[in-house]
Amino acid sequence: MKKVKFRFYLDFEKEEKWINEMAQNGWHLEKFFLGRFTFTKGEPGDSIYRNEFITGMSVLEKKEYFEFLKDSGITIVHESGGWVYMKKAAAEGPFEIYTDTKSKIDYYKRILNIFLVLFFVNLSLGIMNVNIYTDNSSIEIANVSIGVINIAVALLIAVPIVKIIKRKKGLEEEQQFFE
After folding, report:
1. Strand 2-6's sheet: what is its strand order?
2. pTM (2 decimals)?
3. Predicted confidence (pLDDT) per residue in 101-134, tens digit
4. What is the percent of the chain with per-residue pLDDT over 90, rounded to a whole number?
């Protein structure tokens, strides 16, 4: 039996938590794409899910990384748009991808860089589209509309940016405390 759910999360950690709650109820992630999640019915609580944003890897590096995960008992569930969901049997104990503070900080930096690029691209395009045409034509209305959408997207992207900065800063303070 399959179930499709539509959810849009601006916080990848909250999304991961929801996926794990679904698994606790016997609904296991099969695939995802832009807020559309497909689940299959299975044994409640038999898997733990993690998501990861894979960036800057060559095809060979990604293949080797996925092989390493497979050798560690981790199954790649689905990959889309740079995001990867993976699972591991709950019976094998806790499942963390980044187990030390430094690697978590580095991971947050990589995600933050991608979100910052997306933020500034959307903000720049939005401002340009709103300001570029002033001849009262139908092209102006379309450009202003697209510009407003770009600015709205930039503001949506700002939400995870702020959360990631706070999490990263908290980890950095924790790391300094223990040094």
Report:
1. 2-6, 36-41, 27-33
2. 0.81
3. 888 999 999 999 999 999 999 999 998 888 775 5
4. 68
pLDDT value at 139 more than 60: yes
pLDDT at position 69: 93
CA atoms within 13 A on the CB side of 48: 12
Shortest CA distance to 24 belongs to which of 40, 6, 48?
A: 48
CB distance 32 to 78 below 8 Å: yes
Asked whether 47 and 77 are in contact (CB, 8 A), the reply is no
pLDDT for position 10: 85
Which among 130, 178, 170, 135 has a CA at the least distance from the CA of 154? Answer: 130
